[in-house]
Design goal:
Elements lengths: L2 H8 L3 H27 L13 H29 L7 H24 L1 H28 L6 H26 L2 H35 L9 H19 L7 H17 L2 H4 L3 H29 L10 H25 L9 H22 L5 H27 L10
Helix pairs in contact: 2-3, 2-4, 2-14, 3-5, 3-6, 3-7, 3-12, 4-5, 5-6, 6-7, 7-8, 7-11, 8-9, 9-11, 11-12, 12-13, 13-14
C-alpha cells in the first residue's frame, strides 16, 4: 500500500484523525504530569523550571490539549447524523486536525524552548479550533432538521471554548492572571461542562433505549437546562471569587444530574458494559457537584475560613465524569465505525475499571492528610497511563487501517 493510499484511508473519516490525536494526547499529558510530580516532590531529580506555572500548564493540557480532539472527532461524526445532513468533507476536518496537532506538539516544545514558542503553539491550536468550528457550523446552517437544540448549545459551548483558549494566549503574552483565570474557568464551565452534559443528554437515552428496548427512557429537558444554567453560574461565581456562594448553583446541578442518573436507569445499564460505562461516567457529574456544593456550604457557614477537600470536586468532575465519558464514547465510536464487533472483553473492562480507580485516587489525594498526597497523585497518574497506553496500543492502528467489514469511512 502506497503512502497516498494510507493517507486516504487515515483521512477518510473525521474520527480517525481526531481520535488518533486524542489517543496520543491522553498519554502525553499524563507523562508530563508524572515528570512534574516526581521532580516537584523530590522523588527523582530536581524540580523543573517550566516557562509557565505548572498548574497553568496542567490546566491547558487537560482542557485544551486532550479533550478537544475527542470532542471534535465525535461531533464531526454525529452532527450530520443528528440533523440528517451529508457527511463533513475531508477538506474541512483535515486542516483542523493538522493545525491542532502542530499546535499541541509545539506546546511540548515550548515547555523546553520558552514562552514565545508556547504562544505560537496556542495560536496554531486556535486556528485549528476555528477550522473545526467552521466545519460544524456549515452542517448546522445547511441542515433542515426541525430540532437543533443540542447541536446549537454545543456549538455555542465550543465557541466559548475558543474564546477561553484565546484568553490563555493573552495570558501568555501579558502575564495578567485575570486572563488565565478566565481561560481555566471558561474552559471548564462554559466549554467542557455544557458539551459533556449536552452530549450525555442527547446520546445516553438513545443508547439506553437501543440496548434495553424494554426500558422506557425519559429525556426531560428541564434537567438539561438546569445543568447548563447552573454550570455557567458556577463559572461566573468562580470568576467573581465568590466560592462561598457556589452551593446556590452546585446543589441544583447535582440534583438535576442525579435525577437523570436515576431516571435513565444506572442499575439496569450495568448489565450492558458498553452502556454501563456511560451511565457511570455521567453519575460522576452528580457526585462531583454534590461534593462541590458541600464544600461551598462549609465555606459559607464558616465565614470563608474553612476550605475542605481542595480540588477533589473538580477532579471528580474532570477525571470521574469527563474522562470516563471520553473513553466510553471513544471506544464506542472506534468500534462502531471500524466494522469491529461492539463487544466488551476483559482488557476493555480493565480499562473502564482503571479510570474509576484513577478518579477515586485523585479525589482521595485532596481529601486525605497532606503527607500522603503526592503518592496518591503519582498513583492516579500511573493508573491513568495503565489504562490509556493499552487503549492507544489497541486502537491507534485501527485509525489508519481499512474498516474490518470493508465499508467506506
Amino acid at each position: 500500500m502506497t503512502i497516498t493510499e494510507q493517507w486516504h484511508i487515515f483521512t477518510s473519516a473525521p474520527h480517525r484523525v481526531m481520535f488518533l490525536g486524542g489517543a496520543l494526547q491522553s498519554i502525553a499529558v499524563m507523562l508530563w504530569l508524572l515528570v512534574e510530580i516526581v521532580t516537584r516532590y523530590g522523588v527523582a531529580g530536581h524540580a523543573v523550571d517550566w516557562p509557565a506555572a505548572p498548574g497553568a500548564v496542567h490546566a491547558y493540557l487537560m482542557i485544551y490539549g486532550l479533550f478537544p480532539f475527542f470532542i471534535f472527532g465525535f461531533l464531526m461524526t454525529t452532527y450530520p447524523r443528528w440533523m440528517n445532513d451529508k457527511e463533513i468533507p475531508a477538506r474541512r476536518y483535515v486542516p483542523a486536525f493538522v493545525l491542532l496537532m502542530l499546535g499541541n506538539v509545539g506546546f511540548y516544545a515550548g515547555l523546553l524552548a520558552g514562552r514565545s514558542v508556547l504562544l505560537v503553539s496556542v495560536l496554531l491550536v486556535l486556528a485549528g479550533w476555528g477550522a473545526a468550528l467552521y466545519a460544524l457550523l456549515r452542517v448546522l446552517l445547511d441542515a433542515r432538521h426541525p430540532d437543533k437544540r443540542h447541536p446549537q448549545i454545543i456549538f455555542i459551548a465550543l465557541g466559548m471554548g475558543w474564546c477561553s483558549l484565546a484568553a490563555y494566549a493573552v495570558w501568555l503574552w501579558n502575564d495578567n492572571g485575570a486572563w488565565l483565570s478566565f481561560a481555566i474557568q471558561g474552559g471548564l464551565w462554559f466549554f467542557l461542562l455544557p458539551v459533556f452534559a449536552s452530549v450525555a443528554h442527547r446520546m445516553i437515552p438513545f443508547f439506553t433505549s437501543t440496548a434495553l428496548p424494554q426500558h422506557l427512557v425519559a429525556r426531560p429537558y428541564w434537567a438539561w437546562w438546569v445543568m447548563l444554567a447552573a454550570g455557567v453560574t458556577h463559572g461566573l461565581l468562580q470568576l467573581a471569587a465568590a466560592a462561598a456562594w457556589l452551593w446556590l448553583c452546585d446543589l441544583p446541578l447535582a440534583f438535576a444530574a442525579l435525577y437523570l442518573t436515576y431516571a435513565w436507569g444506572l442499575r439496569r445499564s450495568l448489565g450492558v458494559p458498553m452502556l454501563g460505562i456511560l451511565h457511570i461516567g455521567f453519575a460522576w457529574l452528580g457526585i462531583a457537584m454534590l461534593l462541590s456544593g458541600a464544600q461551598s456550604m462549609v465555606l459559607f457557614l464558616s465565614g470563608g475560613t474553612a476550605f475542605i477537600w481542595g480540588m477533589a470536586p473538580l477532579h471528580a468532575l474532570t477525571v470521574g465524569c469527563f474522562a470516563t465519558l471520553l473513553i466510553g464514547m471513544g471506544t464506542r465510536v472506534t468500534l462502531g465505525h471500524s466494522g469491529l464487533p461492539m463487544r466488551v472483553d476483559t482488557p476493555i473492562r480493565l480499562m473502564f475499571g482503571g479510570i474509576q480507580l484513577a478518579a477515586v485516587l485523585r479525589v482521595l489525594a485532596d481529601m486525605l492528610p497532606v503527607q500522603s498526597m503526592h503518592w496518591l497523585y503519582f498513583a492516579a497518574a500511573a493508573v491513568w497511563l495503565a489504562c490509556f497506553v493499552p487503549w492507544g496500543a489497541r486502537y491507534l492502528p485501527v485509525y489508519w487501517k481499512p474498516r474490518a467489514d470493508g465499508k467506506p469511512g
